[in-house]
């Protein structure tokens, strides 16, 4: 099977490329079984031809050794086959039904293969086999000096492949190579596999076609004083003489530790190396390099011939010429890659000096990114440390240990997890796109089919939630009788402390014989400074139990003191970092509860902090608020005792009650709402509608107070898991900028925001796998129906629900607008841009069903300010 | 043309003085396009503002084409270095400064150095494999657009009595990579003065231009191949040796 028409010009090359393309299109439909049969047949045929091909290569190029080229051909056929015989390269190669990910391998198309003169036949076998295994077509651009043997190798593989069923013409080649044709092949192909000199690789990279190119080698063999000299020297000689030194990973210099330098030298001489005297060394330097470039006449030659060229003589059986050198500069010829049977040799003062020299050689004389080798006692601790140092330091993509580098670098001969290849990537250091040994994976396009999956969700709540009017002392009983706590730290505010709210707790602690101390200095909007003070007191007192009693401020302050007490090193800026997914956040919250058990006891009905993983703290110096969110902040126990809430004033009852309502409404509309949180949110809404007006009007009504206490905690559990929305984002900033009570701020915004969310055609919807389409309206209607609201259609039900909320607000004395609360118009307008941007960036925004634009937030603020 | 007015005789051309002008007179068989190209090169370089003799006329004098330009009185650096060899270091340094100054200019319409080298490689008598390697090497070299004299030697810089200098002989000017221009000069020095002065020149050039020596050296096989086209028998050994190298694999 010949190229039917000689490929010797642009026209015939075009035809050939079309032919390969057509063959490849057919090949792309083959199954893995068909491909594997072809791969096997081709590998066998190439191996059968290993001797004639080796002979041809030596004859044509005048370089190298037949026997070694036989091994290289054999290796290219056998080890490549063996490495990839069971590798899936066709169609579905990986499937994960649980995660919904499928990987599909597809061929790339036509590979342009540039072949070097040093390893022509083995590289041609290697590349054709990779192409066949990956269902790619391949066209060879041989070097003119090695075109006959390259083409012969390609032809043998092609014939066997076609016989085994591959499409005719799947492998092609240029018969009469020219740079123009090589350029055309590289331009027209789908990927370039370029092995060869830097000029060719550079051309490949600049052709505009994706290219896998490789770089020049210049391996040093560092021999440490702990090395096994016998093994090292003989392995290096074996490696260096292989094919007269033409494998790019071959050792170019030996850097021997001074302790073993003489021993290395003696052994080298004993085994056939020839040490050049200074005069011969200079002669060789002048012959070896011409203007810094390698003399073509010495490549792949035996020492005898090289010496002749340089003008001196050595015995015919000399294996390697060794030039002792000191300088690692570019001007030192022995520092360079020689691609022949010449070795440079350096004496190192220390291991450090040896590494320094190896590094210098790479930087000064080339070979960055390719290969380096180390001879060392890698069984000792010290040896392993040196190996790590060496590996860290040298910028080569292959670091071979106690291994002859030529045969070791191509993989699978001295290490069996190291991929076999005749194209060795040198990474960015060598100007390459790959740093590995090139294999089938580099010649495939892998498609990832990703099916939509929904996020795992959760329901988390304090381990113990105790509730009932008068339950506080009963619940605290566990501290002694179940947990055996000894020291309690009570956090509360001054008002509660002075008015005897803590007494029922301290009495119980006294009764149980638990030592305690009271920190009663919590202010509204607790500051970092006050939390720090509390934490200092804790460190002195060393409690094994913290009891936070109060509204949101006292419970939040308690949580922060708890963090500072257990983890004084914690950074609030990190902890408060905004996240998209609480389970994927960068920061790992420190483990809580190792020093103290945390109990939260609310005295108002609204915040829900007793069951939430949230806490807000303000930096008094910058005014910055740190909203912290992590389930580590969940109290261990929540105690809801209506007795503590009976005396709450009207304003507090109203503001905290409506806060609880917005918790329930936002948790229900949240993109993270689940069946688990929905039930809690609905029940909370029902209770609030029914009992908040009564609790507001008649604070002594025990049932109303108790129902409101429960509603608040239920809503807390809902939003502890489903999170909130932009009503809270905006209320946080409104409260902070204009000092409105948090509940009031929410009340002023909630209905406008419900309308905003209920829009059936929002500018942007929230991003969450579970959230498939804008459905906030339906969700609000569900709430409405559960709260007894009716109407002709969803829109009417929704409007009636809004009205019901407005009525509730009126009933509990909430004014209509922000303006009504005395916020100065100019001050408000001045702050509007910044406030809107801050609200957009609030942690609560992410769970909102409608993703807001900053301009939309601004409009909502304005509406809430003026009421229209 | 009076014999006493002849300034320089070269193969196929004579340069003589005609009052305030220097006239380059070409033999009748000299390619017309080469003459015009040289004049055009000179005009283009003149327009960059570099100190060169102004082009005055291009004319036919009987059978001969002539390029007429300003006459610049003075000595070439080559004359000075021959008379005062102890000033070698200083003169080479000044020479490199002048070359680097040329490289700072651009002239977008000048021929491209890459194209010229490519053509020259094709014209050599080297075997196909060597030409393939040379083409590959050339293609991988960065393509710049600096003005390159293309044949700059010490004889091409005239120093006048008042200390100003002029650069002459723009027949080979192109735009391209300055290191190729330096490689050309290195080759010229090697052929004219030998290795020692060539090395001195190169190390000064590399130091002043902050260029790696290897980078200039990578051009040497190409400029050597280009030079071989001239067919000077006595240069052939050196040029062939310079060309017969391989790139690392």
Question: Quick gist of this model?
Answer:
Chain A is α/β, with parallel strands linked by helices and 868 residues long.
Q: SSE layout and pairings?
A:
The complex is a heterodimer of chains A (868) and B (249).
Chain A: H1 10-27, H2 32-48, H3 50-61, H4 66-84, E1 91-96, E2 101-107, E3 110-114, H5 120-133, E4 137-141, H6 147-163, E5 171-173, H7 179-188, E6 191-194, H8 198-206, E7 211-213, E8 219-223, H9 229-241, E9 251-257, H10 258-270, E10 273-275, H11 278-288, E11 289-290, E12 293-295, H12 303-310, E13 320-324, E14 342-348, H13 351-365, E15 369-375, H14 381-393, E16 396-401, H15 405-409, E17 444-450, E18 464-467, H16 472-481, E19 487-493, H17 494-498, H18 503-512, E20 515-522, H19 528-541, E21 545-550, H20 552-566, H21 572-575, E22 597-602, E23 614-618, E24 625-629, E25 637-640, H22 650-669, H23 675-697, H24 702-722, H25 726-738, H26 742-758, H27 776-786, H28 794-811, H29 825-840, H30 854-866
Parallel strand pairs in A: 3-4, 3-6, 4-5, 6-7, 8-9, 8-15, 9-14, 10-13, 13-14, 15-16, 18-25, 19-20, 19-21, 21-22, 22-25
Antiparallel strand pairs in A: 1-2, 2-17, 11-12, 23-24
Helix pairs in contact in A: 2-4, 2-5, 2-6, 3-4, 3-6, 4-5, 5-6, 9-10, 11-12, 16-18, 19-20, 22-23, 22-24, 22-26, 23-24, 25-26, 25-29, 26-27, 26-30, 27-28, 29-30
Chain B: E1 6-10, E2 13-18, E3 21-26, H1 32-46, E4 55-61, E5 64-70, E6 75-76, H2 77-83, H3 88-103, H4 113-123, H5 128-140, E7 146-148, E8 157-159, E9 165-167, E10 174-176, H6 178-192, H7 195-209, H8 213-217, H9 220-228, H10 236-243, E11 245-246
Antiparallel strand pairs in B: 1-2, 2-3, 3-5, 4-5, 6-8, 7-10, 8-9
Strand order of the largest sheet of chain B: 1-2-3-5-4
Number of helices of chain A: 30
Gross CATH architecture of the largest domain in chain B: Alpha-Beta Complex
Oligomer state of the chains in this structure: heterodimer
Which two chains form the greatest contact, residue counts included? A-B, 37 and 24 residues
Structural domain tally of chain B: 2
- What is the C-alpha radius of gyration of chain B, as a whole number of Å? 18 Å
Query: CATH superfamily of the largest domain in chain B, called what?
Result: Aminoglycoside phosphotransferase (APH), C-terminal lobe
Distance between the termini of chain B: 58 Å
CATH homologous superfamily placement of the largest domain in chain A: Dehydroquinate synthase-like - alpha domain
Mind telling me the CATH class of the largest domain in chain A?
A: Mainly Alpha
CA-based shape of chain B: globular
Order of helices and strands of chain B: EEEHEEEHHHHEEEEHHHHHE
Sheet with the most strands: spatial strand order of chain A: 10-13-14-9-8-15-16
Q: Which architecture of the largest domain in chain A per CATH?
A: Up-down Bundle
The chain-level structural class of chain B is alpha+beta
Largest sheet of chain B: 5 strands, antiparallel
């Amino acid at each position: 099977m010949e190229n039917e028409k000689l490929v010797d010009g642009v026209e015939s090359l075009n035809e050939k490329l079309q032919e390969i393309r057509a063959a490849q299109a057919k090949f792309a439909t083959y199954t893995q079984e068909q491909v594997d049969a072809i791969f096997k047949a081709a590998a066998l045929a190439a191996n059968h031809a290993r001797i004639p091909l080796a002979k041809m290569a030596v004859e044509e190029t005048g370089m190298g050794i037949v026997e070694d080229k036989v091994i290289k051909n054999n290796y290219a056929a056998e080890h490549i086959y063996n490495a990839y015989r069971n590798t899936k390269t066709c169609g579905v190669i990986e499937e994960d039904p649980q995660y919904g990910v499928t990987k599909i391998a597809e061929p790339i198309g036509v590979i342009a293969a540039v072949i070097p003169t040093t390893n022509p036949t083995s590289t041609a076998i290697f590349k054709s086999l990779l192409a066949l295994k990956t269902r790619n077509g391949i066209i060879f651009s041989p070097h003119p000096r090695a075109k006959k043997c390259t083409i012969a190798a390609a032809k043998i593989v092609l014939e066997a492949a076609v016989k085994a069923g591959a499409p005719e013409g799947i492998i092609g080649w240029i018969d009469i190579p020219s740079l123009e044709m090589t350029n055309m092949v590289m331009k027209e192909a789908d990927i370039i596999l370029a092995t060869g000199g830097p000029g060719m690789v550079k051309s490949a990279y600049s052709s505009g076609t994706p290219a896998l190119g490789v770089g020049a080698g210049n391996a040093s063999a560092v021999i440490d004083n702990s090395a096994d000299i016998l093994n090292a020297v003989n392995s290096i000689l074996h490696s260096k003489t292989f094919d007269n030194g033409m494998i790019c990973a071959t050792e170019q210099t030996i850097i021997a530790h001074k302790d073993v330098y003489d021993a290395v030298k003696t052994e080298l001489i004993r085994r056939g190396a020839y040490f050049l005297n200074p005069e011969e060394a200079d002669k060789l330097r002048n012959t070896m390099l011409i203007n810094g470039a390698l003399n073509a006449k010495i490549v792949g030659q035996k020492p005898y011939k090289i010496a002749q060229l340089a003008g001196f003589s050595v015995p015919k059986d000399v294996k390697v010429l060794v030039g002792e050198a000191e300088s690692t500069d570019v001007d030192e010829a022995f520092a360079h890659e020689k691609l022949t049977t010449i070795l440079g040799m350096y004496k190192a003062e220390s291991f450090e000096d040896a590494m320094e020299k190896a590094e210098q050689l790479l930087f000064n004389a080339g070979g960055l990114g390719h290969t380096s080798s180390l001879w060392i006692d890698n069984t000792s601790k010290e040896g392993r440390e040196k190996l790590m140092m060496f590996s860290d330091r040298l910028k080569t993509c292959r670091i071979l240990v106690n291994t002859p580098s030529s045969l070791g670098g191509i993989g699978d001969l001295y290490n069996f997890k190291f991929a076999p290849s005749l194209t060795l990537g040198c990474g960015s250091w060598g100007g390459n796109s790959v740093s590995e040994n090139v294999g089938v994976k580099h010649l495939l396009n892998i498609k990832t089919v990703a099916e939509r999956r929904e996020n795992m969700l959760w329901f988390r709540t304090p381990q113990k939630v105790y509730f009932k009017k008068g339950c506080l002392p009963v619940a605290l009983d566990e501290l002694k009788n179940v947990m055996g706590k000894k020291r309690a730290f009570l956090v509360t505010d001054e008002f509660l402390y002075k008015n005897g709210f803590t007494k029922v707790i301290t009495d119980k602690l006294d009764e149980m014989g638990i030592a305690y101390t009271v920190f009663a200095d919590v202010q509204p909007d607790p500051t970092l400074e006050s939390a720090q003070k509390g934490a200092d007191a804790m460190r002195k007192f060393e409690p094994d139990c913290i009891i936070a009693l109060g509204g949101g401020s006292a419970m939040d302050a308690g949580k922060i003191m708890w963090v500072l007490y257990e983890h004084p090193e914690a950074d609030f800026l990190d902890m408060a970092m905004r996240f998209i997914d609480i389970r994927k956040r960068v920061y790992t919250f420190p483990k809580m509860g190792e020093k103290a058990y945390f109990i939260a006891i609310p005295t108002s009905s609204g915040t829900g902090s007793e069951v939430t993983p949230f806490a807000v703290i303000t930096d008094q110096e910058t005014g910055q608020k740190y909203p912290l969110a992590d389930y580590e902040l969940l109290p261990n126990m929540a105690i809801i005792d209506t007795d503590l809430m009976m005396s709450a004033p009207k304003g507090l009852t109203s503001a905290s009650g409506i806060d609880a309502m917005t918790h329930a409404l936002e948790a229900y509309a949240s993109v993270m709402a689940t069946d688990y949180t929905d039930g809690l949110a609905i029940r909370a809404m029902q209770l609030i509608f029914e009992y908040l007006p009564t609790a507001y009007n008649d604070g002594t009504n025990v049932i109303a107070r108790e129902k409101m206490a429960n509603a608040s905690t239920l809503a807390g559990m809902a939003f502890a898991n489903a999170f909130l929305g932009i009503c809270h984002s905006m209320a946080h900033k409104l409260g902070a900028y204009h000092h409105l009570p948090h509940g009031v701020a929410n009340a002023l915004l909630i209905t406008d925001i419900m309308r905003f969310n209920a829009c059936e055609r929002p500018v942007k919807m929230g991003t969450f796998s579970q959230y498939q389409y804008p459905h906030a309206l339906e969700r609000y209607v569900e709430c409405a129906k559960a709260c007894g609201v009716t109407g002709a259609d969803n829109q009417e039900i929704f409007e009636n629900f809004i009205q019901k909320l407005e009525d509730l607000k009126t009933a509990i004395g909430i004014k209509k607008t922000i303006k009504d609360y005395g916020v100065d118009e100019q001050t408000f307008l001045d702050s509007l841009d910044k406030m809107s941007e801050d609200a957009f960036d609030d942690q609560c925004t992410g769970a909102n069903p409608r993703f807001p634009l900053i301009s939309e937030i601004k409009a909502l603020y304005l509406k809430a300010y003026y009421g229209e | 043309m009076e014999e006493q007015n002849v300034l320089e005789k070269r193969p196929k051309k004579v340069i003589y003085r005609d009052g305030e002008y220097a006239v380059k007179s070409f033999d009748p068989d000299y390619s017309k396009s080469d003459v015009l190209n040289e004049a055009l090169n000179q005009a283009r370089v003149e327009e960059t503002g570099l100190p060169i003799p102004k082009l005055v006329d291009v004319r036919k004098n009987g059978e001969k084409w002539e390029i007429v330009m300003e006459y610049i009185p003075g000595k070439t650096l080559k004359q000075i270095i021959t008379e005062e060899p102890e000033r070698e270091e200083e003169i080479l340094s000044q020479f490199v400064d002048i070359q680097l100054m040329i490289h700072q200019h651009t002239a977008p319409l000048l021929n491209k150095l890459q194209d010229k080298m490519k053509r020259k490689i094709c014209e050599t008598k080297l075997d196909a494999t060597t030409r393939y390697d040379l083409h590959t090497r050339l293609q991988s070299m960065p393509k710049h657009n600096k003005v390159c004299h293309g044949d700059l030697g010490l004889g091409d810089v005239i120093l006048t009595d008042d200390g100003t200098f002029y650069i002459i002989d723009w027949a080979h000017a192109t735009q391209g990579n300055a290191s190729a221009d330096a490689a050309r000069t290195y080759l010229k020095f090697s052929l004219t003065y030998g290795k020692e002065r060539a090395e001195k020149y190169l190390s000064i050039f590399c130091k002043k231009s902050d260029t790696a020596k290897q980078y200039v050296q990578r051009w040497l096989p190409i400029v050597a191949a280009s030079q071989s086209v001239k067919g000077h028998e006595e240069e052939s050994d050196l040029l062939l040796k310079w060309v017969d190298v391989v790139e690392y694999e």
